[in-house]
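INFO batch 0412 | record 1 of 1 | parsing
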Amino acid sequence: MDQIKMGNFMSELRKEKGFTQKDIGDKLGITDNSVSKWERGINAPDIYYLGPLSEILGVTIKELLNGERKRKKKVKKENQKPVLEIQNVSKKFGSKEIIHNLSLTIYKGEIVGLIGPNGAGKTTLIKTILGLYKASNGTISICNFDIKKEFEKAMEKVASIVESPNLYEHLTAYQNVRITCLLNGITDMKYVKNILKMVKLNNRLQDKVKHYSLGMKQRLAFALALIKKPELLILDEPTNGLDPLGMKELREIILKACETMGVSVLISSHILSEIEMVCNKIMILDNGYLIDIFELDEIESREHSLEEEFLKITSGTKNQIGGDV
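INFO prediction complete | emitting tokens
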């Protein structure tokens, strides 16, 4: 990290925003002299100030550390339909803020990997998108439906598997499928059969779900999610507890659904190798802040793995900072 470059960048951004050093200090609860030292490259901000400071200056934490804005990659015309739009969303539990002023757009057909350390806020963000938690600030829209104003219409466009498959285990797989079809008004059984064939369960539909392996339960949960014909599929740790074969099967289903149905996917996982094999865009969350978001091919062009990039970025926010106010 080049402290001089970072300091010059901070100074430029502050002036663009029309702030004085005292304004920044007041917002952060520190002296303007401390801000001056940052801008002159004498000290670097402590990690606890990075998130709020980047938020004030309107850049990501990684951009702040690098001392420059990242060049935005143009989205192809065919992918310009926003499926999920998150604008300045924060989530508080009491006085504790878990998600900080986060903005994100996912376009049709994208598979976006959400990664971050334990406690980064990944599941909280997912549950907020799904309306299980109410956002404290900001807006969330799914296919242009604001989840606060048009919740039911927004939820018609999304399917999810959060934490563990929600199945009727005392019933057969076929009965689970029928219930899902009835609840969602699905009558196209040819479409349903194609989904079941995709997840490789068409020969085990009469078995009770309680006799399924974990991998089979996950594949059935995928089928029930896809039967709804969602525009957006949200997955929280979908490969958790699966063996390598089960991971491979789920990866193939995700890619096939995206290719044949045009569904967009937001997937959270700790298994970076799996994320690397299935996603085309990555977002890194840490302490509730969006640290960085980038296309996967940006990593490939640097000739190192997603794991190496992840460790570099997250250690950069923790270990490469001076530690002085």
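INFO post-check: The chain has two domains: 3-71, 109-133+145-287.
INFO record closed
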